[in-house]
Amino acid sequence: MIRSDEFYMHRALDQAHLAAEMGEVPVGAVVVDADGRIIGEAGNAPVSSCDPSGHAEVRALRAAARQVGNYRLSGCTLFVTLEPCMMCVGAMIHARLRRLVYAAAEPRTGMVESKANLLAQPWFNHAIDVRGGVLAGQASKCLKAFFAARRNEADR
Ligand SMILES: [Zn+2]
To answer: Residue 109 Cα, ligand 1 centroid: separation in angstroms?
Structure first.
């Protein structure tokens, strides 16, 4: 059963909250197949996994690809709570993702609307549909709370 973008974004937000509990910057992602099934979900974990590529999107794509036994995720949609970076946009193109839905914009490193619009470049051999701003308020609230708590700890 295919549910609303907001439904899946709530699941991605759950992953972001779990990441925050691990002390990671709270970003979460889920991959949904063409039938609306969640086939991969993950939170941001570069610090705890000692992995510079440990962003939520990459980890969710890895989980989904393992689940279906194929590195191509044609027909799938990735939901993520923050606008993706350069690396994650690249991974989505390699996965031949059909669609990307994200919540908050990321003014410093976002490569979909903020710093550049990589997905609009004509030189990629694959196009991905994009929708931004889904539950953006909730996603940025979660990020702001995380960084505010970290600043408070630093002040102590
Ligand atoms: Zn990334």
So the answer is: 9
